[in-house]
Amino acid sequence: MKQDKLEKVRGFKNCFTRVTGGLRKFSQFREAPSLVALLGIVLISSLLSPHFFTGTNIKNIFTQVSIIAILAMGEAYVILTGGIDLSLGSVLALVSVLIAGCIKWMNLPVYLAVLVGLGVGTLCGLTSGLLVTRVKIPSFIATLAMMAIARGLALIYVKGVPISMFPPEFRIIARYLGPVSILTLIMIGMFVIGQLILSWTRTGQYIHATGGHEEATRYLGVNVDRVKLFAFAFSGFCAAVGGVMLTARMDSAYPNVGQGYELDAIGSAVLGGISFTGGVGSVGGAFMGALVITILGNLLNLLRVSGFYQYVFKGIILAVAALSLSRGVKYAK
Amino acid sequence: MAEIPLVEMRGISKSFGAVKALQRVDLELNHGEVLGLVGDNAAGKSTLVKILSGVYTPDEGEIFMEGEKVEFASPADSRRLGIEMIYQDLAIVPNLSIAGNIFLGREPVKSFLGIKILDKRKMIEQSRQAIGRLDVDIRSTKQSSGGLSGGQQQAVAVGRAIFFTPRVVIMDEPTAALSVKGIKKVLELVRELEERGISIILISHRLPNIFAVTDRIIILRTGGRVGERITKDTTPEEIIDLMVGMY
User: Fold this and answer.
1) Taking the model in full, what pTM does it have?
2) CB A205 to CB B118 under 8 A?
């Protein structure tokens, strides 16, 4: 009888330590706070709005998050090397109007127009990268310049006027396969590739190393400039993919699209636990961050909160996230 | 001149803006030799060895290895020729694993569907061997390098330098941050490398360390070479006088 009780206590204790041990292990993941934030906002949303957990809304969220998440991944690459890219929203707009012009004005086949768009986006990233590595301009300034230039070029190209009504071969990109948008499938594909590059290639290793200790990485014979160029080019490519997707989804292109997207991208990266000093984080984290930001926007829409207030909410969430993350780092040390 | 030196640097000059860090400095390193490089702060020791390791390119001067002229556009070039450097700050990337640090810049890759991917298993196993030779308590080379103690970091830096069978190992102030016990270990390591026929350039402020292990000493002062002594024929006092310019 006594033995039985002892067994029971021991079993309970085992169970307890297993749970706390598991929690402790979980809390060591850099993405843990992001996951908690994500679950938290899902919980709050489902409590506050009866429309949140409906099929259409979930479908909407996954479609909406696709574009922001891809931008966040591009941003994550640059932030991991220790830089920042402010030009994503503008590059997205430039790519968007270019593709529209190629299809509607120059009658190029859709695949060619898309290739032109992706090429130009990558080129924008590459240019920012060259400004950073060759001209030695800090990435904040270099990409701020690119942000203005790309936006200006977009406005010049279409003279400020939107273009819409694309052929079905192009709009197919935004179609649904069953409940899942092709946009979401593209995003999943991009994330798989993005994470594989980061964790399984030399380039990925060097991206982390450059962000962790650039000088040491250079001293050991790694071409740090080439690593940064790759990150910026990848970021530009991601912006371009976002441009293609957004244009197809809205079935129109206008030069002012994507304003503030760079902030969503940076916010997603920060919420996803990517260290702003570089070197630490994963694109999976960036995805979770993007999901948090998207769901927040979605919830505020469901609650009919005006778009003006949404900016303030986003800003507050971001500040809190940054605060809690930096605290976490301090304790971890 | 019976033997061609392993490394010969001739007439090396280097300026940073208006600062002349080195002015026409020569350095030769013989096979299997331990060479001490001493000088006061800003004498140009670090600049000189960073030119040899490919971090800086000299404004003037030439480098020869076994009589053949070489040019280093980056540290990758000098490492390829067997010149390894242990940097003063150890050049450990804190967010990479120990294995990642040891293989940084020369990661083994394998082909996977035609794409070159990291051979992580090889990295972890071989880095364990690299660390295993050194007497240090590191449980797994998978762990991150961020939380390592000074001695452990040193072991990683040393393991990285000696794993790829170098011909020259440059040590820039390897004892600066170490305890007495740690210093003893480094000096033992220098002797062990010497026995394996590796040539060493040792930079140190601590003259007793220099006298304990080197064969020859080159003295720099304000960017110029002011003297060269055979270690067993000189005294610390003479070296100090040369360093501060009493001669």
Assistant:
1) 0.89
2) yes
